[in-house]
## 1
Amino acid sequence: MSDLLWNLLFGLPDQRPGGLLLSVLSAVAAGVAAVLVGLVYATVCVARPAISLCLQAPLAILRGTPLLLLIFALAQVTGLPLVLTGFLALTLYSLSHVGETLRSYLAAYPRGLREQARLLTLSPVQEWLRLRVPWTFRRSVDALGTHWVSLLKDTGALTILGIGELTTVARMLGEHATTSRWALVLGTASALYLAAVLVLMRLLAFLKVRLTGREAQLT
Amino acid sequence: MSGFAAPVLGTVVLFGLSATLAVSLAFLLAAGSLGRSRPARAGAQTLITLTRGVPTSLLVVAAGVGVIGHPPPAWLPSPFPGTSAGMALVAWAVTIGLAFGSTGHFAVIFRTGYHAISPARREQVAVLGLGRARRLRLLVGEAAESTLAPFGARLVHHLHNTAFAALFPVADLLGWVQQRASETFLVSRYVAIGVAVYVILSFLVWAVCRGIEYRIAHRATPGLRPLSRVAT
């Protein structure tokens, strides 16, 4: 049982780091990269509405494409190492959702705050960094949080690459097992996913309280 | 392009069957989690949390791996185009795994829609003296306006999840793309076809949901109108 748990947490002996650790690392890395690129995308769309359609259309197509197909296409076309392919696919998939969320909140930035920045003689870059981006994050934390929970679960799609994240390990351990062993493997993997999702939800609730409290102090 | 129709139909059938099952189970779970019985509420809530917290990939893998060594019983129908009769049990298991993957999400959407109806409005429905079925139709109509947008978004996600069927010998669009790409080395062509079909199917799902939303908002039959228009 301890071997099983160890393998599901950290991957099979020849594929470490793997298991839940790799799932979480993939989700965090892709989530952070998607938010950074998404901010650039949102800024360009808000600053130059004329070209935003050219950027929004590919993202809309990306949103209509299953993650599994995206992973398969990147694995075939790019020739990158499989872990990097998975990271790139998750980032693009996440960007297609996060980019639009950030764009809509960045566009909804209130006029009053812009005037306050002008009164404080902040440069446009200072206003963007010190007021607009933090305001956008505070407003979009709920939507981003929902997406991050979904992203953590979607790392299971990397099983198509066979890179040894949690679903792949569970699949490999369960394939040639007896029925009771199969139930134990998949039940433990499910419990690990559930625990990871619940921890992430608690972290998001904590982050929301912190951000809301900070906003209340500022206003 | 040989054998293109069967995998597309396979995806549509997988989607249709699993979505129908998911929506039916979600109705039951949403009703259970809103019910008066405490054990029923706790049971429904546990199932909702479980199906929302466990990835669809794992549910599908669990279902498929669990039955792949067993032959299908003779009575089991095989409505999956392109899937061999010997894999019917796996196809059904994948369908059930896909359905469980969305059940919790649909249940939460339905429950949120119910909560969006004000208590006064719910009481109005209760005192109208209607039968249970008619009352349910009125409540569904009333909640639909706030429910259809997230419901449609989840349906599109559910459609994309059908691609997990490609992990098993069950005919679906992603499996066809993978097979054709490796047979012909024309990866870009078959990926583009796959993307185009998924985008079109996603658009159709979205358009149907928007159509229903529009019909509910502009319904002319008094008995089926949203309660906001019946009662005021």
## 2
Amino acid sequence: MKRRVVVTGMGVVSVLGYDIEEFYKNLLDGKNGVSLIERWDTTEHSVKIAGEIKDFDPADHFERNEYKRLDRFTQYALVAAKSALEDSKINLEKVDGDRFGVITGSGIGGMETYQDNHKKLLEKGPRRVSPLFIPMMIPDIAAGRISMKWNLRGPNYTTVSACASSGHAVGNAYRTIQYGDADIMIAGGAEAVITDLAIAGFSNMKALSTRNDDPEKASRPFDNDRDGFVMGEGAGMLILEEYEHAVKRGATIYAEMAGIGFSSDAKDIVAPDPEGGGAKRAMLAAINDAGIKPEDIDHINTHGTSTPTGDIAETAGIKAAFGDHASKIAINSTKSIIGHLLGGAGAVELIGTIKAVQTNTVHPTINQETPDPMCDLNYTPNKFIERKVDYALSNTFGFGGHNSSILVKKFKG
Amino acid sequence: MSIEQKVNEIIMDELGVDEASVVPEASFINDLGADSLATVELVMKFEDEFDIKIEEDEAEKITTVGTAIDFIKQKLGE
């Protein structure tokens, strides 16, 4: 028999703060997190903007000896995991570490480390490549590091599916507890690829917005004047816990995991299926997994990247999945506010979705000025709304055609 | 700065240990908390800072503060 799984802790590292309440308030207020990149010289780059975290100092969180062996994405992952653990009030002395696992997602892994060491190779030769290069760069090291820091000895691995990575991580963690392989899981994702090489690569794909003269208006999913996504960075971590286990220790339960749906477009390496077929199949699979009806869905936190084709495809997928009910769903895009966290997006946006379910609020999609006739659903433009949110979906889709849809429901005992 | 002082400072910086623990007989791995990767980094740092080349079979013998100082002195012909 499948076991019930609830969310009992959340942690975030974001351009809008490190505290869940502050982060969600900023989302509700539609406070913009996009600005000019300051970390490196963007002169030669056609993209000069990102949701860059300016105030993160590893020395605030780690001893020097520790952080110099951690790529930025792992630093973000560890800080978010620590917040989530504290938020859950789990006493690590009193839970079974063998039954406590970690699944994290990262699309790329330690990009800064990769670049630093490649530079050493070219400039100083192979003998100068750091022995820490590989264990700092591999995308699974975040999950490994979390396990070592808190001695969590249960299932531990990393999912890599580009921008859907942490959707898959959370989904797999949910299944792990459902089927009895663990009682508690830290699940989430982290990404830190605001580097010159990564921005150049995404930029040359024509995936990124070039609205350099007006960064705050650059990420505008579903708006007619959108011109690509804005790179973001950060981490989101959730504590998923078996229901009885959570009740027994008197945990605060934020929401209940209700279902997951994974699918593939099987069409193109980067372009979404124009009809949103993969998105539709993922959402309906999650609804089916939860044993509810499409009409039960109140809210969808979309993948909503602000790319010209992606937003139309996702809109088409929602219409195909929900029919007449599509126009009654409160839809939004967290990426309009903080940019696109790639492998971190699924987890950070799921935190926003859980807060929606918990508080009956839906944060806005900002920068909605000129409607796109092809995107004609209710995207919660510019101002947050209060409404009943009992069931909500969080979508993430990745290059390679990977789709993930996570369904959460209000916890009602 | 003497070679001893410079070696000690590199070790303190790389391994994050205090001055009192950096004594000649201190082993990088057994006393100063280094793992095998940290000792490789340490040797790289010696090569950079003293502009010398340390071969792999030589590096294997540099396991304590004292062996590092002696080896580097010898390399620099002092």
## 3
Amino acid sequence: MILPTLVRRQRASLKATLLAPPLALAAAIILNLILYSIMGRDPVAVVYAMILEPFLSWSSFSEVLLKTGPLLLIAQGLAIGFRAKVFNIGAEGQFILGAIFASAIPIWFPEATGGWIWPAMLLLGAIGGALWASITAFWRVKLNANEILVSLMLSLVAAQLLYYLLLGPWKDPNGFNFPQSVMFQYDAMVPLLIDGTRVNVSLLIALALSLAAWVFMQKSFMGYKLQVGGLAPRAAGYAGFNEGWAIWLSLLIGGFAAGLAGAAEVAGPLGQLQRSISTGYGYAAIIVAYLGALHPLGIIVSSLVMAAIYIGGDNAMVSADLPIAAVRVFQGSLLLAYLVAVAFVRYRLEWPHAKAAEGSAP
Amino acid sequence: MNAIEFILAGMLAAATPFLLAALGELVVERAGVLNLGVEGLMAVGAVIAFIIVYHGGGHFLGFIAAGFASAALSLIFALIALGFRANQVATGLAIGILGQGLSALFGKTYESLTVKGLPKIAIPGLSDLPVVGGLFAQDIVVWLSLLATLAIWATFAFTKTGLVIRAVGENPKAAHAIGYPVIGVRVAAVAFGGMMAGFAGAYASVIYTPLWADGMIAGRGWIAIALVVFGTWLTGRIFLGACLFGAVSLMSLAAQATGLDLPSQLLSSLPYLVTILVLGIISADRRLLKLNGVASLGEPFER
């Protein structure tokens, strides 16, 4: 069988690193358009609704920016852990706990007023996310349990906890039995950033924390220790870098960022605690982190792309009759395409017949 | 029927989705590969089987098609994780997301529809025993799953195939040096795991709770992966673990029936909480994991 083999490059290819995300995006778009055609949808209409429309009007682009905020926050936090080879895939649960913790203030003190409320909610949400993640950290460090499984299970538990609150103690008594809390007071809302849109200050916070993540990972000794732990665990051990410390730090940062995102969601566009506070942000952010090459600056771009996919998916559901599940299919195939593309950063393809021809030449 | 009889009678059926998926993942991990996409593979199997049974294709055809569909999806995992040597954690997650998305896409027009399950086959005599009698009246797939458990145990314990799979997982370089096709064995293991996950999903959607609903796998694929750790990569212990989870998922039903005033969300969380708890207890014994674990798990093979 003539199959090409992967040959390790002398050094990682910068060109392949930069080309991998756009190529993966293009491949995912083509594959999904083929799928939509098979499903009997008009691919031109889907392209228009999904890819162009989010950028064609200021109002829909502002919605893209609105969705960028939580994805950016969560992905920055996760990427730090992924670089240290700590696979926290429970950001969804940490996001939910952030939303719950933040909601406690306006739900318990609906009459409270003052400019302190929304910052306190964001802070409390971030702490809530970090606390939820600390369960995973404890299980991993003290009990040696796999953090992937524990963090995911905790996300499923978090969803049940949210339903319990919304159907029980925190249900809006005048809400016609809908699983949602009361609407929050004005001071519980994060101030708007751009008038006439729903984009709020939390996007600036996400950008500022992205910058902080960049400084932390590229310039600080702590960030360096984390990365060495991920790349060369043995070397990190010899250098005296503590593995348990790296796991705690990774998970707490990830939980803090995801919790903050959850808080910003209820204190922002939603204005109340609802059953559907997250449309899979915690899982989508994993893809955002990888697509941004786990680099703080790359993640800014990839979170914008993923946000556009969400808005485009919503558009296509309305105008091209595409089921919303198509967004999940797109997300999955995008990550797969990226993983293939990124193989060429470290490897190049070598065709066996070319080699054989060389060998047979006199 | 009291709660104990209820749990004994239903435990094996409730355990079957966990058991089939975990047995598949056991073979995959023994070959040194970590496929975290089980949840998505089960979802695809579930929806394919449901569609076929709904349109009158019958349970047999439904299971076969589910096995093929999930095996095909798991081969995409194999291509990317083994062929392109991508990070297995990320590839598995992507396959999981893709599989769940595809299942929702295919199943959209079947949401909340139901089909007929399968009749129970009772072992004469045994099934009339008091209290434990219910254990001996199960549908054909449960009986076949028990056979599959025995077959996989025997394969690892007695056959050369089992030995080769373990060699590939423990020391791929040595296995390659003595001439075994490491990548070939791993691809075959992944396809087998995918097929078993497809059967597990099919059992969930056309026999255990014969209806289709988006998200109906509800974490069972993840629990199956955890079961492989609980069972410390040993077939018999994985079977016991699956029975435990079958019982736990029935306990929430039994608790509601006895009128215990607990929030239903707490009962729904019970399997997840038990998973977290048991994972902590088993993993805390580092020697146990080291002794039975697979040495090259999750690492790509390079000559």
## 4
Amino acid sequence: MGFRAAVITFPGSNCDRDMAVAIEKVSGTAPLRLWHGDSELPDGLDLIALPGGFSYGDYLRSGAMAARSRIMQSVVRAADKGVPVLGVCNGFQVLTEAGLLPGALMRNAGQNFICRTVSLTVENNQSLFTGAYDAGEIVRIPVAHHDGNYFADDDTLDRLENEGRVALRYAEPCNGSRNDIAGILNRAGNVLGMMPHPERAIEPELGSSDGRRLFESAVGALIGA
Amino acid sequence: MKVRVLVSLKPGVLDPQGRAVHHALEGLGFNEVRDVRIGRVIELDLADDADDEAIDRMCRQLLANLVIENYSFERLGGGESA
């Protein structure tokens, strides 16, 4: 049984190929590649991945234009029906702008683009995307972003924390994110947005293979391994 | 009809860009500056019959992110009979 994933490419996406490679390496099946102007998603998808990059040149706000593209209307409908959606970096920004995840990603508090491998704490290992990690485990995954400073109001933060929806947290302050949040889940648990790039950490040769288990979690959960 | 939309960060939301500009102004000797907040101006050229409700929806649906930003808009003079 094949794993049916789709990777969405927007104008300015630049991690779409890495994302497709990571999914294929772990699942054994090459994902579909869809373009922002496509309006229909095929039925029966096991995963929709929104990759990193600078969609639409980060015009207006990071992720703002992509979130209003035609394909995203279909992604929102699919997510509402329970299709797993993973947004990495710019993909996380798109998910917040599209309203699939709460909060917003603002300019890093230090104003600098941050590009380095960071330590993350796996806060929730019960999710679709994190089941292959141990709770509280520290993993090493690269970040590369200018706008990763997670902001949400106090009530939203309380809700995220109390509902176990903070999936990943920076082990040390990184970019000014409130509560050091690096990745969050939607209420139903089928949408994960995260600033770090798991697709850049799938082989020891890349410096870390800690990101690989995120894909293994999703593939394992969805094809009933 | 020209409409000017002003998008600004909500009070309490950290504005690192504003803070950096504040420091730069101080570095130039402007010690009277208490705070700097940076926003965005968007000028729209709209059909004359565009109503405020439509402009408001543009702001809410795209031009501002209401999680972190406030907005206001004003019609600029000219092109419309008083």
